[in-house]
Amino acid sequence: MNVLLENLLSPMVLCFVLGVGATLLRSDLRVPQDVYSALTIYLLLAIGLKGGVALSSAPLAELLLPLFVTLLLGLAIPLWVYALCRRLGKLSPANSGALAAHYGSVSAVTFIAALSFVGARGLEAEGYLPTLLAVLEIPGIAVGLLLARMNSARAAAAAGAQADEGLGRALSSILTSKSVYLLLGGLLIGALMGEAQFSKISNVFRDPFNGILCLFLLELGMIAAARFSEVRKAGPFILGLALLTPPIHGALGVSLGLLSGLSVGGATVLGAMAASASYIAAPAAVRVALPEASPSLYLTAALGLTFPFNLTLGLPMYAALAVWLDGVL
């Protein structure tokens, strides 16, 4: 309970709530779009750089098992989310694939918040975790899109070349999207320059990180609150998917993380990654490959419900589970 209260009173959560309040109270508070884009670029590049620096000194043998379980999560989660949406939710192939892509991928902001959360509690987390973030970002989206296109009657009626072109454009948009490009680019730069060179710019990319994250979450709170009005339209299935699957995915991520050799802090972060839903890379890819899918479903679920849940309640849950399992396993 103390951990939960501390998280709810953390600067990150309070800034997010401040943003939510600004929208609900119809304040004229606005973060200029250019500033929001700059904050996004800074955060993604910073975690890429720091991850690359840690990667440069990490033994390859230490990375293999965590990389394997992360890839396994990225492939398995969209498969079962798609089946759940089709069988229980009775959703169309396009909407099922869109939701599978969002929940199979990862929220970079949830990852950043999880790193800050474990760091604030004195838990060590492996420095190469941004590598796992990059690995988890792409497969889930690809699997979700493939499932939708393979099972859509409309796609089956279309010419094969036409379907392949749409899927190819979608996969290309994932690899060249801002989040993936900055993460992978930052990882490469950080790995090449190492700690000695990074120390020369650490006062820009390490020290102000948490403060800039608070500004970003202020804006994200306003964006998330704008989708609250659509929650009632989403229906009970979407509510259940957005609020009940994160703890399941989080528990799976924490368990596999500990079994793969990650520390308690690292397993907590992997659990948060598995529990999250993408709302940056996935929407861009879905708009290209599945234009018939409904944004009111996948954006409301990912940004309006799952992200606030993980930020406020999920992170303390995954940390507590990691501490408990570490004493059992």
Please outline the helices and strands.
Layout: H1 2-8, H2 11-24, H3 33-56, H4 60-87, H5 93-104, H6 108-120, H7 129-151, H8 153-157, H9 160-175, H10 178-198, H11 202-205, H12 209-225, H13 231-234, H14 236-259, H15 264-275, H16 281-289, H17 295-328
Question: Characteristics of this structure?
Answer:
329 residues; mainly alpha; Na+/H+ antiporter like fold; 17 helices; 81% helix
Reported CATH architecture: Up-down Bundle
CATH topology: Na+/H+ antiporter like fold
Which CATH top level class fits?
A: Mainly Alpha
**Coarse morphology:** globular
Task: Identify low-pLDDT runs.
Answer: none
Total helix count?
17
- Decide which structural class fits the backbone: mainly alpha
What is the number of domains?
A: 1
> Total number of β-strand segments?
0
| Largest sheet properties | none
Overall average residue pLDDT: 86
- Note the beta-strand portion: under 5%
Give the helix level as a range of percent.
Answer: over 70%
| Terminal CA distance | 23 Å
SSE run: HHHHHHHHHHHHHHHHH
Gyration radius over CA = 19 Å
Report on the architecture of this protein.
With 329 residues, the protein is mainly alpha-helical. It has one domain (2-24, 31-328): Na+/H+ antiporter like fold. Helices cover 81% and strands 0% of the residues. The chain is built from 17 helices and no strands. It has helices at 2-8, 11-24, 33-56, 60-87, 93-104, 108-120, 129-151, 153-157, 160-175, 178-198, 202-205, 209-225, 231-234, 236-259, 264-275, 281-289, 295-328. The longest helix is centred in the last third of the chain and has 34 residues, at 295-328.
